[in-house]
């Protein structure tokens, strides 16, 4: 009967040892899962930061495209105004040429008047034409001045608009940088909150592993004691 009890004790100890080994394997698997969770959290945080940066950069790119379109439109307006100025200058040149021709005609008429007194009416008509041409020249000069003033005003307005847009862009950039900083701070706080918890879990698991190892050692000692008891029993029995 004593031999049977010793054998039963030995079997129970072996079973306990196997169970402890299984628990050790499970704890190791849990440790690996926790490490994988840590890595996944870090990857998710990195992906979130990248997505936020992309979402912030897309509106900036759209604003830059809008600014480029506005600049192109301003350049087109300037080119059109320059073309108008050139046309007006050409008209002025034509009027000046006409004036020169009329002056030549007047000179010819004066010469003819010295010879023929009947050309006074023609001379008066030519003088009237000269006056009209002078008035047209004055009007054209006034138009040119007005166009130049309009050009200057347009340029000033364009510069003001560009300055306002640049200021808005700077403000947007500052706001976006502040948002990024806040988001990064929040992510860091989350990491700081999550990492200690995970580290505590890891420490607890390690402590459990140590306790299981100690239990395994105790079981091995008990197994040795049971084997020694069995050997002693067999020795006394056969002696």
Automatic annotation (TrEMBL):
Localization in the cell: Membrane
InterPro entries: MetI-like
This protein's GO CC annotations: membrane
Residue spans crossing the bilayer: 27-54, 61-86, 92-116, 123-149, 155-181, 188-213, 219-238
A biological process from GO: transmembrane transport
UniProt keyword terms in alphabetical order: Membrane, Transmembrane, Transmembrane helix
Transmembrane helix keyword on record: yes
PROSITE patterns per the UniProt record, alphabetical: ABC_TM1 (PS50928)
Domain ABC transmembrane type-1: 15-189
Membrane-related topology note: Multi-pass membrane protein
Protein name per Swiss-Prot or TrEMBL: ABC transmembrane type-1 domain-containing protein
Organism: Dreissena polymorpha (Zebra mussel)
């Amino acid at each position: 009967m004593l031999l049977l009890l010793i054998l039963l004790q030995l079997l129970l100890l072996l079973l306990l040892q196997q169970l402890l080994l299984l628990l050790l394997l499970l704890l190791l698997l849990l440790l690996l899962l926790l490490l994988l969770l840590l890595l996944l959290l870090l990857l998710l945080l990195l992906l979130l930061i990248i997505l936020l940066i992309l979402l912030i950069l897309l509106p900036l790119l759209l604003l830059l495209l809008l600014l480029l379109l506005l600049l192109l439109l301003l350049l087109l307006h300037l080119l059109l105004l320059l073309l108008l100025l050139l046309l007006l200058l050409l008209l002025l040149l034509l009027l000046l040429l006409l004036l020169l021709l009329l002056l030549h005609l007047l000179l010819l008429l004066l010469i003819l008047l010295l010879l023929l007194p009947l050309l006074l009416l023609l001379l008066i008509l030519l003088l009237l034409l000269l006056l009209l041409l002078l008035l047209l020249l004055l009007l054209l000069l006034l138009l040119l001045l007005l166009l130049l003033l309009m050009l200057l005003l347009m340029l000033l307005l364009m510069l003001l608009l560009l300055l306002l847009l640049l200021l808005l862009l700077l403000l947007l950039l500052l706001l976006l940088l502040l948002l990024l900083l806040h988001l990064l701070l929040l992510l860091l706080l989350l990491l700081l909150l999550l990492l200690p918890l995970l580290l505590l879990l890891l420490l607890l698991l390690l402590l459990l592993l140590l306790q299981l190892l100690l239990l395994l050692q105790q079981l091995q000692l008990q197994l040795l004691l049971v084997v020694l008891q069995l050997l002693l029993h067999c020795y006394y029995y056969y002696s």
